[in-house]
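Regression test attached.
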Amino acid sequence: MKLNNIIAVIQNDARVIKRVKWRLLEITYFPLTTILIWGLFLLYSKQFAVEAGLIVLIVNLFWSFCQLAQQQANILIMEDLWSLSIKHVLVSGVSEFEYLIAKLATSTSAAIIIGTLLMIVANAFGAPLLASFKIVALIAGIALLGSLALAIGIAGTVMVFGREYGFLSWSMLQLFIFFSAPFYSPSIFPSFIRWITEIMPFTGVFESARAIATSAPVSGSVLWHALIVTSTYFILAWPYYYFCFRRARRTGMLARIAH
Amino acid sequence: MNPISVKNISKTFKSKKTEIKALQNVSFEVKKGEIFGLLGPNGAGKSTLINIMLTLLLPDEGSVEILGEKPSPDVLSRINVVAGGSEFHWALTPNDILAFYSKVYQIPNPKERIQELVDLLKIQHLMDRKFSTFSTGERLRVAFAKALLNKPELLLMDEPTLGLDPDVARQVRNEVQRLNKEAGMTILLTSHYMHEVEQLCNRIAFIFKGKIVDIGDVKSVKLKHFGSYDIILHLNKKPSAAFAKQHNLSVKEKKVRATLTSEEALGDLLSSIHEAGYAIRDIAMKKPTLEDYFIKVLGEQ
C-alpha cells in the first residue's frame, strides 16, 4: 500500500468537490435542512411530548451522518465511473485498495465535519448531545463503521454489475435503516422479522440515540453488540470487494465500465 | 528483456446465450525501442489485449509480461496509456489533472515537468479551463500530457488519432515518431488508419477474430499477400507489339502497364525501354498499401 497514492486520490477528490459547487451544497444542504426541520418540530412538539421530538431529531442526526459517510464514498466512485476517468486512475499504479481507502477517507472527513455542525445545530434546539459528547462520539464511531462497510459493499457490487447499479448508492442504506428500527423499538416488527434487526448495523446506534433522547442510560451491552455487528460487516466487506474486483476483471465488466 | 511479451493468451467472454472467443492462443513480443502496430477490424481483440496488459481484464489462459514483469501497480507506474476519446473528470482543469498524476507518478519537480509538456503540446491556454469544455483534439493533447508525465518506458496508444482533424492527427504522428527516436520509447499502437500504421510502425501484427493472422515488418507482411505490383508508364510513342510481348506489357496507345515481382525487374524494364529508344514522359507505381492488405486479408479470412 502506497500512502502517496491514497493522498493523491484524496487531494483529487478535494479538487472535484472544490470545482463542483453543487457537491458542496449537496453535502451540507440536505443534512442541515433535515436537522432544521426536525429541530423546529422539536420546539413545536414541546407543548405535547418532548421525547417524541427529541427522538426524531437525534435519530435523524445519526441517519444523516450515516448517509453522508456512505453516500459520499459511493458518489465519488460513481463520478469517476460516469466521467470515465476511473480507467486512467486504475492503470496509473493506484491499486483498488488504495483507491477505495482514499474514497472512504474523504467521505469520513466530510461526515465528521458536517456531523459536528449538525450536532451543534441540534444542541441549539435542545438535544442534549454536547453534554454527553463522549457517548455520542462512540455511537457515531459505530455508525461510521457500519456506513463505510456498506459503502465498500456497494462499491464492489457496482464493479460487478456495472454503472446501472449506481442507484444502490442512494437506496441501499434506506433498506438497512428500515430494518434497523430507527424511530421505534424492534419489538414493533412481527416476530418473524425481528431477528433481522439483531444483525442490522444500525439497530444499536438508533436504540442508543433514543436512549439519549429520553435521558435513559445507554446500554453497554447494546453498544457492544452494535460494535461487534458493524465490525463484522466491515471485516467481511473487504473480501467481498476484492472478490467483486477480481470477478469484474474476469468477466470484462471492469474494462467496460472504465471505457 | 522485451517490453511486451504475450504468451498463449486466450480469453472467452461467456454469457447465458453467447460465447465470444475474444483471443485464441495469442503470442507476440514487442522489442525495445520499436513502434509496434496492432491491426484488425472492430471486435478483433485489440482492445481486449490492451486491457489485459493494463490489468483491467484477466486472461483465461496464458501470461503477459510488461517490462519483464507480471503487470502490477508498480509496473503500471512505469508505463502509460493514451487512447482516442480519453476522458477525465469533466469539472477538473488540466492543471488539476496533471497535478494529480504528478503526485501518483511521484514526479520530481512536477511544476517543471508539467511546464515542459505544456510547452511541447501547446496547451498553456487550456490549463485553467474545465475538461468538459474541450474539443476532441484538445482532450487528446491533455491525455498526451498525462501519458508523457512519467517519461514512460512503454507507451500504449489505443486509436490515438480517432476523431482528430487531419492536421492535429499529423502533429500526433510526428510527436510519436519524435518520442520514439529521441527518447527511445517503445510504443504499441492500435489504429484503424492504415496510412498511420504504415508511416509509424516498424512491425505489425494483424489480429482477426482473436487470432494473429500475420506478424512481421510492414514490407514483408505486404509481400506475403501481394507478390507483385503494377507500374504504369506514359511513353513518347506507342511501343511495338513485339516489344510489348517481349516484356509482357499491356498497351493502350502510349500508356503501358507492367506487373512486376521485384525491384530488379523494374530496373530491367526501364533499361529495356531506354535501349529500345522510347522516352518516358510519366511514371506511376501502384504498390499495395497496408489498406489493400487489410482489405485482402479480411476477404481471405
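Expected vs. actual: identical. The radius of gyration of chain A is 19 Å.
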